[in-house]
Design goal:
Shape: globular
Number of helices: 22
Radius of gyration: 24 Å
Oligomer: single chain
CATH class of the largest domain: Alpha Beta
Number of domains: 2
Largest sheet: 7 strands, mixed
Distance between the termini: 23 Å
Length: about 450
């Protein structure tokens, strides 16, 4: 599902006014002779000392580029900080416009002739709906995306084979949360395959461990059920393949196909197994926040949920994020990869944003290409609380151990797919898929009946 955490206060246009300083600084450097010439630049512009990394973006001094996005304060502050050197060296001002109503207002702006220069789309489906208005990626952007991202990520920024948008940030859902201390105290090893994870679950269930192998919670107000759909999506990538996942998402394969039934049965082997989770129906009334709290207090051993859970467990349940090697920390939590069927099968489920252009001006292209560079991705990650699927992102710039694992998962994923419910029609992805998975848990509704009910709600083409 879409990232559920509501952004804080809405902000309007947040502008970094450093262009004048940039031009003054560069002029001073030129006056003092402290410049080099960029032989590869079409503009033949001089490069101020210390600005060599920005040589490819010169020649656009005095231009302003608006970035329209859902990302507002406090997250937007670090984005703006990550642009400072770029602005000072290129003379381009980046105008950051964060708006919580982005999904509705982007259509209004495009229809009204006031489209932004760049827009950060949080969903591939929304991006594709504007393809007729977007500027196809330049040769420089295509080359950067080809060099720095996997084919799956490029595909999500493309429409009908044409690249329009480069990936930006990412999130990963293929995580199992656990306590390194609990594992060490009980002599449990991190599983590397699905079969090993089931064997470990059986071992825990049969042991004298004072808790359950798994804990879960799917209550989330009007969005109750999305945690269960995430299980389905992750397992679809493990028990089937990426192509089958795609046909499930676009309904080329019916929702009640036997392949989907196999996946639901696999999810049920954990979530509806009382030996693993205790009271199954209680999962439906346990909030997703509380669902993972058992790994903190020792009442469960494992909990599958996305990377953002760590902040919740730290803030609300007194957890401490640790590395897997920190096995003596009470309340310490960490993650391991939700394994595939084999150790060399490593699909990943997650989401991310994409930067698309509505304006083919050179300054706009310069900013769009820069955001796809290793230089910017490493600068942004080093500021904290963020990571991307960029293959050149150095994990030493990712301080948070969970985000570090997320980057490693993305860089080593054999297949990456977006959250299916984000890509399906709203009546299904944010409707019947949630409600039927809730009935599956709360009422013990039969597997086939759940899938038949979801299939019946798929909009007619």
């Amino acid at each position: 599902m879409r990232h559920f955490v509501r952004r804080r206060s809405m902000v309007g246009i947040a502008t970094l006014s450093v262009a004048a300083l940039a031009l003054a600084g560069c002029a001073a450097a030129e006056d003092s002779g402290e410049t080099t010439t960029d032989a590869g630049s079409d503009s033949g512009a001089s490069v101020a000392a210390g600005c060599e990394a920005y040589a490819d973006y010169l020649g656009n001094e005095g231009e302003t580029v608006e970035i329209y996005t859902t990302i507002v304060e406090p997250e937007s502050t670090l984005f703006q900080e990550s642009f400072v050197d770029f602005e000072e060296c290129t003379g381009i001002t980046i105008e950051w416009n964060g708006d919580q109503a982005f999904e509705e207002q982007i259509a209004v702006r495009v229809a009204g002739g006031t489209a932004p220069d760049l827009a950060i789309f949080p969903q591939p489906g929304l991006l594709s709906s504007f393809s007729a208005d977007l500027v196809p990626a330049s040769d420089a952007l295509v080359a950067s995306v080809d060099a720095n991202y996997t084919a799956d990520w490029k595909n999500y920024g493309s429409v009908d084979g044409t690249l329009y948008a480069a990936p930006l940030g990412a999130n990963v859902k293929s995580f199992v949360w656990y306590s390194p201390k609990t594992f060490a105290d009980n002599g449990w090893a991190i599983p590397t395959t699905w079969a090993e994870m089931i064997t470990l679950s059986d071992e825990i269930a049969a042991s004298d461990f004072d808790g359950y192998a798994w804990c879960a919670g799917i209550e989330s107000g009007a969005a109750t059920g999305w945690l269960a759909t995430d299980w389905m999506e992750d397992l679809m990538l493990r028990f089937q393949d990426g192509e089958t996942y795609d046909t499930w998402v676009d309904h080329s394969m019916p929702f009640n196909d036997p392949k989907v039934l196999e996946v639901l049965e696999a999810a049920g082997s954990v979530l509806k197994n009382e030996d693993y989770v205790g009271n199954v129906s209680a999962i439906a009334t346990t909030t997703f926040q509380a669902g993972g709290a058992g790994v903190v207090d020792g009442t469960c051993a494992m909990h599958r949920q996305a990377s953002f859970l760590g902040g919740i467990l730290v803030g609300d349940y007194g957890a401490t994020i640790v590395t897997p090697e920190d096995t003596d920390v009470e309340g310490g939590i960490s993650t391991f990869y939700f394994p595939g069927l084999s150790a060399d099968d490593s699909p990943a489920l997650g989401g991310g944003e994409f930067v698309a252009s509505f304006n083919d001006a050179p300054a706009v292209e310069a900013v769009q290409v820069y955001l796809s560079s290793a230089d910017w991705n490493n600068k942004k990650a080093a500021l904290g609380g963020w990571f991307s699927p960029h293959l050149g992102l150095d994990t030493t710039n990712v301080a948070d151990p969970v985000n570090k694992v997320a980057v490693e998962i993305l860089q080593n994923a054999t297949t990456f797919r977006f959250d299916a419910s984000d890509l399906m029609p709203g009546a299904v992805g944010a409707g019947s898929f949630w409600t039927e998975m809730t009935a599956w848990i709360a009422e013990d509704k039969a597997d086939q009946a759940v899938l038949d009910a979801i299939e019946a709600t798929w909009p007619a083409s």
